[in-house]
Structure formats: C-alpha cells, structure tokens
Amino acid sequence: MSIDKLVKEAQMVSLTHQTRRLFLKDLTLGLGGLALGSLMGTACGRKPNAINQDILFDPMNPLSPRIPHYVAKAKSVIYIHLAGAPSQLELFDYKPELAKLDKKTCPPSLLEGKQFAFIRGVPTMLGPQANFKQRGESGAWVSDHLPHFANLADEVSFLKAVYTDQFNHAPAQLMMHTGSARFGRPSMGSWITYGLGSENSDLPGFVVLNSGGVDPDGGKHLWGSGFLPSVYQGVQCRSKGDPVLFLSDPKGINRNLRKASIKAINNINHIAHEEFQDPEILSRIAQYEMAFRMQVSVPDVMSIDKEPEYIHQMYGTKLGETSLANNLLLARKLVEKGVRYVQLYDWGWDSHGTSHNDDLEVSFVNKCRSMDKPVSALLLDLKQRGLLDETLVVWGGEFGRTPMQENRNGVPLKFAGRDHNPDAFTMWMAGGGIKKGYSHGQTDEIGYTGVEGRTSIFDIQATILNQLGFDHEQLTYQFQGRPFRLTDVHGEVIKEIIA
Amino acid sequence: MFELNKAKLLIAALMGAFLLFIFFNKSFEKKVDFNTEIKPILNQKCISCHGGVKQSAGLSMMTRSDLLKAGESGYTAIVPGKPQESELFKRITHSDPDERMPFEGAPLSKSEIKLFKNWINQGAKWGEHWAFMPVKNVKIPKVEIAKGMIGLHQSYWSESPIDAFILQKLNAKHLTPNPVADKRSLLRRLSLDLIGMPASEELKQQFLNDTSKEAYSTLVDQLMKSPHFGERWATMWLDLARYADSKGPERDAKRDIWEYRDWLIRSFNEDLPYDQFLIEQIAGDLLPNPSDAQYIATGFHRNTETNDEGGTNNDEARASAVVDRVNTTWEAIMGTTFACTQCHGHPYDPIRHEEYYEFMSYFDNTLDHDTYDDYPRLRTLTAEQKSELKKVLTWLTKNDFENDAKAAELLVRTWQPVYYSLRCDSLKNADIYDTKFLGMRNKSFARLAQVDLDDKNNLIVRYSNRMDGGWWSLHLDSPDGLELARVKAKNTKGRIIEEYPLKGELSGKHDLYFKYENPHLGTSTVAPLQFDWFHFGSQFPGKDLPDFEKIKNLYWDLICANTEHTLIMVENPPGMHRATKVWDRGSWASQKEEVQPDLPEIFKKDGIKIPKSRLGLAEWLVSPQNPLTSRTIVNRIWEQLMGRGIVETLEDLGTQGIPPTHPELLEYLSWKMMYDFEWSLKALIKAIVTSATYQQSSTVSPQALKKDPLNILYSRAARLRLSAEQLRDQALSVSGLLHDTMYGPPVMPYQPPDIWAAPYNSSRWNTSVGNQKYRRAIYTFWKRSAPFPAMITFDAAPRTVCSARRIRTNTPLQALVTLNDSAYVEAAVNLALLQLHEKKAQIQIAKAYEKAIGRSINGEKLAVLEQLFNETLKEYREDEIAVRELLGYWLKDKKVEASPELAALTLVANAILNLDEFITRS
Asked: Does residue B772 sit at the A interface (CB-CB below 8 Å)?
C-alpha cells in the first residue's frame, strides 16, 4: 500500500475516532477483558488443587482481590525487620542473673556443641547493658532504651523464646521471610499477595521500604517471588528518586502528553485485539491504564509532606530523609490505602562490638532511639485511626544475641558486643487480632535458650498467615511436582497470643 | 394414534436397552490405564498420607506390592479382581464420613470410584510412568486434512511429520489450523525466535524479495548461521545454569565466570551436539587432556553461590553448593524433581532418601570450597604463556618425567590440587579470619588434618605476611613433631607464592601443624601471617639436566604470574577423596552412613552399571538408557518456539507434572533427537520452525477461541510477550543503537541510581561508556542481590537457583519500564531521528512503525498515531522548555536541533515501542 493512500485512509479513520469517547471505551473493554481473563482460568503455572481451588494463579488478572480460607482478623501486615538482629538482652529479655556473671569466663557447658559466627575459644559473659523496668499493667520488662515504647507494653504480645536454625544474617533473614535459608523460595509477602491479590488496583499489594543505608543482608530476594509468578514480588518503594522505579514520566513529557500517548497506545491495542482476538491484549490495555493511575497514586501515598505537623512530631520524621521513621509513617499511609503487606527493613542492628559503630553502648543506643519513637508512633497512629485492629504489626530481627561478649578470632573485642544467637530472641506482634499486654515463652536465666513456649520462625509465619485468614498448610502452589508452602512441613499457629 | 405411541415406546425402549448395553459393555470393556487414570488420583488424593513421606496406618501406595500387602489393620488394600474385598475400595465408598477416605477430604467422584472399581476388577495392573520408560520410536500418524479447510494446500500440511501429530488432534476436535502467516510476520517471528532480535536489513530484503519455494527455509538457515543465534539460545541456558556475575549475598561481590557464558554462545553457534554439550558441562575437566573450552564448560556447576558473610560454616556452604548441583542436574537436564528426596523418600515417585546421597556422591568430590577466591579457577594464559608452558612440558616429557609434566600442567593452569587454609583446625592463638583465611598471631599453631603425603617432597604456599621477623614452620603429626620446613618470616608486601622442599621421606596421610612465632609481636592480637592455600607435590625434577634452571624459572614464573581467570570444576585427586554420607532428614549437621556413587534403582532396570565418576554420570545422562534427557530438551526447545511445552511443566515430567498435550509427538521428536538428529539442536529447531504448525498465522476465530481458548491444540500460532532480553535487544535494534559486538566481561547499561546496596560492598554500578552500554541484554552485569530492574520486571529469572521456566506476567510495572526507562526513551528518540530524512510527518510515523513492528501500518492505526502527533506537536510548540528537556540530553553529541516536531515524533515513537504488537511476537 502506498503511503499516500495510507494517509488518506488515516484521515478518514481519524474523523470517526474523534467522535468516540475512547477512554471510557477502554475502561469498559478493559474490565470486560479482565472478566474474560478470569473465566479462562489456569493457563499456566499450576494445576487446580482440590483442597485449594479458591486460590489460583490467573495469568490474565493475577492481582484480583481474593478471599482467604477463613474470616481474617487482619487485613494487612506491617512487618518491621531490624536487620542485623537487635539484642533481646538489652531490650526485653531482662536477666539479672546475667548481670552477676558479667566479665566471668563462660562455662564450657555453654559452648559444647555450639557453633558461633564469630566467637572462638572461650569468651567471657556480658551482663545486660541497659536498665530494665516493668511496664504497664502487664508488667512486661522493657529497658530504658525504649522510653516511648515502654508506655505501649500493654498493647503487644511478646514472644520471648523465638528460635531459628541459621546463625548468619543472609540465611537467617531468608529463613525468616521465605521459610528457607537457601534462595529460590517465595517471600511471605509474595505468598500473601498470591493468596489475597491486591485491594487497591492503583498500588502494589506488597511494598518494601528500606532504611539504614543499605539493603538487608539477604538482598532483594527477601521480597522476591521465588517460583511464584514475578507479579507477586515485593515492590521496593524509595524515598529518594522515583518512589517506584520508572514511575516518573521522562523529562519533557507532562501528564497531558502521557495521557494522550497511553490513549493512543490503547486505541491501537484495541485495533490489534480486533485483529488477533488475543485476550492478553485486553489485559495489557488494563495494565497501561493502571500504570497511568499508579503514576499519580504512588507519589501521592509516598509523600509525607501533606501530613500534619503533629504527625511529624509524633514519628520524628524529617522530610527528604530515607529513615525508619519516614518509612513507618509511609507504612501507615500504605495500609490505609489498602496495601496488604508492608515490609520494612532497617539495617544496622548487628552489635558485635568491633567499634563504637557497632557496639551496645553507642551504636545500639542510637539505633534504639531512631526506632523507639516512630515505632511507638505507628502503634498509636494506627490506633487513633481505628486501624490497629485490622493491621498486624510484627517487630523483630533474624536471630538473637549471645549472653557472651564477642571474642572475634579468639580475641575479646574492645567494645561491648554480642555474637549471633539463633537459639533465643524476642519478637513482638500487635494489633490484627493479637492479645494485648501478653507475653509468651521464656528463656533460661541468661537468655541463652528458650525453656518454655519456644516458637520457631515457622510458627511466626503460620501465625501471620492465620491472622490474614489463611491456613498455612493450605496456602500452596504446585511447583516441581508438589504443592509448596511457606512453612514447608513446619509451623504451628501460636494460639496463645491470639485474642 | 395409540398404535403409533406404542411403536414409539417400543422404539424408545429398544434404544434405551441398546444404550444401556453399550454403556455396560463399555464400562466393562474399557481398560483402565493406571498411569493416566489411577495414578493421578492416588497422587492427588491419597499419597500425601500413604506415600513416600508418610505411611498412615502403615499403608503406602507407592508400589503395587505395597497395596497387595495386608496393612496394620489386617485388611488388604487391594485384592485384584475383587473390589468388594479390597479395603481401599470399601473405604472410598464408605457411608460413614469418619471411615471414608480421603480422610477429612471430599469423597471421590462417582466416575473416580468407578475407575477404581474397574481397575481392581481388571486385576489392578500397575504401570510405569511414561517419562521413566525408554523413548519409543513411534509411527507418524496418517492423517487426512479435514474437509472444509479452505485455502489450505494439503501437501503443505503434510510436509512435516510434526504437522501430522498436530493435525490428528485438531481433526478430532474439528478444528482447522490457520493458513501460513504473511511473510513479514513470519520474518519477525522467526528472527525473534532464532536470534532474539530483528534480522539484519539485508536479510530482511533478501527474504522479502525471494519468491522461490525455498525462501523460508533459506531464511531459517541464514538466521541459524548468524552469530546472534548463539546469544539468543545461550540466554535460555543461563537461567538453567543460574549464571550471575556476582557470588551471592550478603556481600555479593563480583565473580568472573563470563567465559562460561561465552562458551555457551560459541557452543550454540557451532551446534555442539547436545550430548557433548552436556558431557563437557558436567565433566569437561575429567575428559582426557581437557582443552580450555572443556574446562570452561564446567563453569555450569560453578555458578552456585558462595557466601562471604563473616561467620558462615564453609563446609556447610560447600555442601549446599553440591546439593544445588544435584537438584539443578535433575531439574535442568532431566526435567524431574529430585530435591524432595534430600529430606525423605520421594512422595510420588519410587526414589528412596538414600538414593539422593548416592547420586550426590558423583558431585561431592570436587576441589571447590567456600573460598573467597572461588577456587578452582582456570587461569587465562596469554599465547606467550601457553607457549612457555608447552616448552616446560616438552622438556619434562622429553626427559621421561611424564607424571611431573601432568602435575605441572595442572598446577600452572588451575593452581590445583591444593588444600585451602580455611580447612585448618585445632587452632591455638590462630583463627580462620573472616572465616576464609588462616591467620596466625604470635606463638600460634594450626592443624591441617589428613594431608596425603605419598611421594610428596615439596610444599608450595600462597600467603601474605605483613611483618618482618620471626619464623614459621611445618611439623609432622604434632606441633612439636618432626620439622618438615622452617621459613624465616619476612614482610611479603601482599600475597606471594613460594616453595619449600620438605625434609624427610614422607608417605601416607598425616596431620600437619603450622607454627608461627615472632618476638616483635609480644602479646599483640595482630595476625600478620595469613595463608591462602597449600600445595603438596614433588620437587621440579631434572636438576642435573641441561636447561634445568631455564625451564624451572619458566615454570615458576608461570605459576606466580597474575592472570585473569574463570571458575571451573577440578576433581579431588585420590589422596584427597571425600566420603559422602546420608544426611538424616536432609540435615547437613546429622550425617549418617557413608554411600557410594550410584543411580537410583528406578533407572537401573536393565542392570546397567556406570563408572562411579562424574564423567560416568555425564555419559549416562546422554545415553539411550536415560529416558529423560532427550525428552527434556525437546520439550524445552518446543516451549521456546511454541510458547508452551508439550509437557507444560518443563521442570517436571514426572507423575506430578502436567500430562503432555501431544505425548506421541514428544516421543517422536525425542527419538529423532537422539538417533536421526544425533543431538543436533539446530536440526531440532529447524524441524520445528519449518513445520506448518509453527508457520501458521496467529489470528483466531471466535469458534477456535471457544473450542480451544488456550491454544493447546495449536490451531494457530501463539502470540507471546517477548522475554526481557528480546525486548531490550529489539528496542536497541530498531532504534539503530545496538552495538552488536560479542563476548567479554559484562557491561553496565543505564539503570536507575542506588539499585546496588549490598552491605559491606562498596562497588558501584558505573554505566558503561560509549557504545558498550548498547550491547545485547545477555552481556548485562547480573548481580544476584540486585538484578537489573528493567529485566527482572519482565520476568527474567533472578538466577540464584536453576529456573526451568519463566512464567510470563502482565503488570503495570512493565508498562512503566517501556514508557519511562531512559533506555526506552533513548530508543524512542533514536527511532524518531532515523525518520528525519522524510519530510512529511505521516510518512515519518508510518516508517517508524514499520521499522519497529516489521509490518506496514494500516490506516486506522496511522490515524491514531497521527492524532497523537498533532496533539503533542501543539503542546510542544507552546512549550520550548519541554522540547529541550525531552531531547536535549540525547542530542548533545548530534548535529540535530531539538524541535517541537522531533519531540512530537519522539513521543509517537515512544508509543510505538509500547504497542502490544511491539511487545508481543505474533
């Protein structure tokens, strides 16, 4: 066909087009396409599973909201992970006996059969490096490092005897968030997004916010989708640059122009759909519309400058910073908008004691300060908005710390610091159907090992899923010939802390 | 009237009786197929409680004999021929829900119960799963083209045997295949499929102007000859090999293994037969006199992760790399899941827990460990160094030092075999620093356990010492044992390699002790002396022969030379053999009895025995005795070209995988792959792309969409969203930006700032300069903890573990990449620039579309784009700043003025690069 002829034809067609209300048409057809997509069901990925037919990967509409196994107590989760593993012995697990052992040589019985990341030979014991008080009606022990949180002890359930089987950061973080110390498994947020879809079609269902200067040790796979379709991976939102990668229009393309170009793209895609009848094209049209909306909704939810002054004061936020405080405020905004799973990582809690940059006297205290106020603010803020009941807040690291002073390479470190301890650490949960002012589990006299109410990281996962309405044994995905699940063959819901 | 009714009734009764007769006859006669009808029900509903993992009430349903045994209750699950006496049947039909099976589950459907009844009646015959049976030579079906296939030429559809298998199923569903796609669509489809990007302009013209019958076949051959063919197919393999340019979290430092990627590209281009391709990757190092290429190929299994995090257990990390190799071998090469047997017996297939470790044993004797430097490595010698090595070896051989020549060659090329210092234990005032290197303080010692000293009289050490003074020494059996060597310690100013003759006549295995003392240190906690590795061997021979000094110096210079390197496999020599043990419940920490290398019983039906070595295993993988390898690659190549595997679950052809859509076609091609194509991948690919099935158009009629919504029967060509790599390459290609040089270290094209943020790692993404940033996607630096965002968004595999299949998704984040990523904006600007020689905007738009999509634009679409152009132009004419913002950066080295027209055209080009037609291969 000659170009001239084409041009003529184009002019004709353009006349008819101008009379159409194209965006409206796009929308209806788009939704029609989605419905069609849903009917088409299971094109790939998995076979329908008799137990679990309500959760199916629908490639045409993978994020449509879905109903969990039973009525959920929590609609969303904010998981605050202190990467590096904060010391339970300076925060919640008060051990007066340990104080008595301070600077004494570690008895051999504590070292037998143990493997440490850094401790070699025979270390000395290290007494608590903080002052403790009992708080609130529940009488929970909380150290002076957390003056704000101390007032909220009656809001949370402590888990005092959590354990894992990994004693290095990357594997332990992977374990905590994917159920496996090795790579390749989907993260908890991905499982949940796969199970629940997304409530807000203009925002991702699973958002990750990082602070502390670097990514957590486990890298971006901590929010990866593993063998689940990649649509379920966490979307890292950032306070600097684009809040979501590639979100901003390129320089020189304003909103009007972007709108016009998406309109043109979708119009031509409609023509292509008439030609090929491929339902995937309709899905693509819907994705472009959603992208356009996200360009507005994400910056909106990711900016905190419109928050009132008292909120800034409460959280201790500073505009333009990448901080845990800012991220916690963002987390509240995100769950308010229907995001299901907000995962925060704050790096810098690895208090070995090699210098004042990672010791318990200076660095740890500073980290506590930067965390205490905004975390407490988050709980209060959720509460005052009536959101705490339906938002599960989880706080913890990837393992605990030893009651011994670290002696790296067999040489005692000069600053107060503790090595990794997978056998015991404290986590807490609040809101989302969790008991208030409760404490579950106990460690021995020196906080070395759990002696009562021990909970594994799989139990934590099972409990989080439970609060969202899932039976962790039933939230499965068929892969490599078998149904996989987050908790593998482990995990029991921690019934004791459920309200 | 009455009579008529009676007659009607009679007829009805007769018909009813007839139907009943047919029905009964059918139900009694129809032979129940265990594999396709019974096993899936067992797997889905029974085996989780009565299988390889759990045996509730002592009952397993893994084998027929299990079911014929009396269970704990005393009842027998199955009595062949007697459903009513079979406990299994009683329980699935029980009226009491507490007694009925599946326990606490929905009851079996009537038809399922009937299947069980008939199956037991017919003797409860068992069957082996098809994928574990030898590949059969199946007959090509004789099929007639269904009537009403207007416009299709019969002979065209019968040219390829593949079409016969496809047609057989289409006929059964009364579906007709589509006619052949138009030439331009075919050109684009074939180019993207074979070379991963559009064909060159020259090749396009050649094909479009070729009116001969062979035009298409010529195009296939031309594309297969293109060096870009290898790049496209290597991309597929990199997912299986979990290839990356970094070691893995937490620090995720850089790793040099790109020579393996280049080896893949070359192998695909040279059409290295698939059997050889696999043998070299699994055991290239064990082939006689391995070439550099054969060593490099073993990089396949060196893509496992290394964890440099302080405090890791090196032995456990090494073992977990071995586990990864086992699982990858099964998943990538044999399309079978084996990983579950690491912890327990296979839940669905008859593979025992111990068999996992017997298989693992083949892989457990390599010299790699969790070392910082990722040893063993092939040292990249220059041509000059190679010729020097040859001189050394010739001299040794000439003087009858054959064994020394062998050892010298291995040591120069690979720095192996060595003991890594991280293996030292019994440390006194010493430690494994950063869990990687033995570091020694004043008055310290460390043990290197169980060193093979047979015929050893020489020690070569790689180490560093930051301080002069004192000495270090080596002792036999105890810290105070016989002194084998004593070295005056000096500041080495960095890592060096030195050799020391060992005193005494040594043989057997001994614990050796390193001792260090430096009075200057006093009680300092500094550890100046740090070791990397130790090599025990013989002294360079021929001391009294002519040229000894010269040759020895050549040799020593080669050993000490700084070289580039790439990661490879090297096997433990006999004296360093490692025993593999069963890990109780898959836990490395609780190792039980020792096992020997062996295949799982299920693969030893014919009593085959293979050598107990990695090479033996590699040869078995590609032998006719292996039922899985050929099927797996055929299925994979089919998936790459047709969008879905014949078995959709590429990672699992086993009993839990999705059954094949065209089992006989899979069988036919798998047989052909081995015996006719002789493992030529190009022959296999050509057979598929020259089929009429492949060449169909991709339009679909409402009837076909209704009958076969997912196109399982191939009545049309698949429309497939391009892969992450294809998308990038295509955008670079159509905008004229592509820099298509091949091979070499990875490059860093544009990516947003602050993506790399691993702890304890200060390396930065420094965007490559010049045209290096326009290289094909396969050369992009792949960092495990932070993969290239634009590609990961389009479902690229993260490459931490083997990924047998990418699942395509369709998300708004993808739209954001192609709309806003600078790489795509730059492509749009350049696509627009290419059209500037045309005067009229309409023509520029039409040409830009044609360049990108490979077809001419129709009037309707042109109208839409033109309208976009006009609207945009209006805005840009009123907003000069926006014009400069959009174009300024990209035009700074070009002699083109930023104009509203160019800006508008750029926006149109940006839209074109986002069209479904561009993002999809049709």
From this structure: no
